[in-house]
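Researcher: Please predict.
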Amino acid sequence: MKYSESMFEDLVDQFYRPLYRFALSLSKNEDDASDLTQQTFFIWAKKGSQLKDSSKVKSWLFTTLYREFLAGRKRLNRYTSIDLEQAEPELPIVQADPLRAIEAKNAIAALMRVEEIYRIPLTLFYQQSYTYLEIAEILDLPIGTVMSRLSRGKAKLKNLVSGEQVDELKLVPFRKPGGADQSNHESERVNRG
């Protein structure tokens, strides 16, 4: 049976409250009850058209909500819940490593000095954890080009982080929007010859 958008809205109007009350009785939590009810209607939107007998809509919705509740409970039971205050004596002592923080700041500063053509793929790869293929799609480039830019960018970044200043790096200073650092950039270009 095919359901139109208005039929779906009528269904929600008719069954939202009773489903929510049922979910609340199961979960004993208003937020969880809302989530369960929303999830039930989401599943209906995806699969409800498969129901052949329209007189069974109500039982289908309630059954689906109950199954979602059980599935959620099963997921929660897989992970033990521990009160953090009670577990605190057992937790390892972790001290901030100021050297790592400084290294991270230096790496970010060096990244900002790499040409944009290499900086963007490096940022997507290292800071956003995108794959080569995802970067290629985002930048609308062939994957080989992405791989090449990442390889060259890594080399340039490594040189900057290790303190080696190589002429061919063609460093680009970080500029604020509006070109506030344009005069510095111009003087660097003149000094290089």
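Model: The chain has two domains: 5-84, 98-192.
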